[in-house]
Amino acid sequence: MNSNWKQLFEILHKPERLIIGLMSGTSLDGLDIALCAVKGNGAETTVKVLEFTTVPYHQEFKREVKSVFSRRDADLQMVCLMNEKIGLYHARLILETLKTWGKTPEEIDVIASHGQTIFHAPATLHGLLEYPNATLQIGDGDHIAVKTGIITVSDFRQKHLAAGGEGAPLAVYGDYLLFSKKGEDRIMLNIGGIANFTYLPASNDASKVFSTDVGPGNTMMDQYVQQHYPGLYFDENGTIGSKGTINEDLLTALLTNEFLHADFPKTTGPELFNLNYLYRAQEQSGTLNLSKEDVLATLCACSAKVILAAINRCFEKTATPHIYMSGGGMHNPLLVRTLKAGLPKAKFSTTAQLEVNPDAKEAVLFAVLANETLVGEKINFGAREGVPSIRMGKICLPD
Asked: CA 246 to CA 262: how far, in whole Å?
């Protein structure tokens, strides 16, 4: 038998698998690396996060990724080169991190690599009737597998597209397996560059579960800070925005896009919500001379408004959902205060209460998806549009 298949066969029959989950988001702050001990599959899945770190990206690497990120005019040669370079770079960071943790590659069963999204093009955004939904993540999985010597599962989003989804968000699959609880309505709210959530009904009925993007999370705030405050990458603790005043005219203009009012589930990205979007809203509202502090206060209010509106669509006014937060936005006190004020009957926590570090959550979810690729069965999410009942990921062998 091929040695790779023999190794894979042995991994499939282990009672517990050590899986490294990787996540590199649109903020480009670094690579999240989570070492997870995973048992079971499907509704019987249990995960223990043994180690977690975020390895910061150096400035030159950020510059290179940004040269091809969310750009229609990206240099195709650079896209090809970065596909290989990101894979090799992530592999090096994994090996260095394992050494720091006192682990060897031979102790790890599988790597689950999300890759780096550089363009997201659902049909609702590109509007070209003859073309399907599309998305592109680079950072080749074979390079990771060969460089580390560890079987790697990668390129998860393409199966979601092929089965009729929009390629995002994928959190619904891991959220349902790890965090559903009969008797409690839960919202797993992730405030990354784009804000999204998974709705987990108290009935625990998989056919009623869904995940959706709702609109901008941190992306426009981060882009604005990077443009106007050299050396800063985000508004730490909401300090700058807290000094400003919300401009209602600009806020109204920011909230007019039809995506924000479209039905669930839906997906978007910085291809739509970016500084050009902000500039057009400022032109429309006559607020081009607004102070930087007021702009950031208004962008924060915009993110809060779209999140609140989306969550309120899921529940009756008397409902008391439990909202578990993750993602960089949960560290912005101004944003969190606004959310709590807008949902006074909801209970707010982070996923730490569910024994998953909220900063590690997305990396952990990809470890769960890789486990399902290897040993899971399809979960029946019913006929809900945008949530196909599938397993995702391509298996890359070390040799």
From this structure: 25
- List Cβ<8 Å contacts ≥24 apart for 22-25: 22/90, 22/94, 22/111, 22/112, 22/113, 22/114, 22/363, 22/366, 23/114, 23/362, 23/363, 23/366, 24/86, 24/90, 24/114, 24/115, 24/116, 24/139, 25/117, 25/192, 25/193, 25/362
DSSP 275-331: HHHHHHHHHHHT-TT--HHHHHHHHHHHHHHHHHHHHHTTS-TT---EEEEESGGGG
pLDDT in tens, 99-146: 999 999 999 999 999 999 999 999 999 999 999 999 999 999 999 999
Cβ contacts of 110 within 8 Å, gap of 6 or more: 11, 17, 18, 19, 20, 150, 151, 152, 153, 370, 371, 374
Tokens of 32: 């999240």
CA distance 388 to 364: 21
Please state the rounded mean pLDDT for residues 219-227.
96
What backbone phi and psi angles, to 5 degrees, belong to 314? Answer: -90, -20
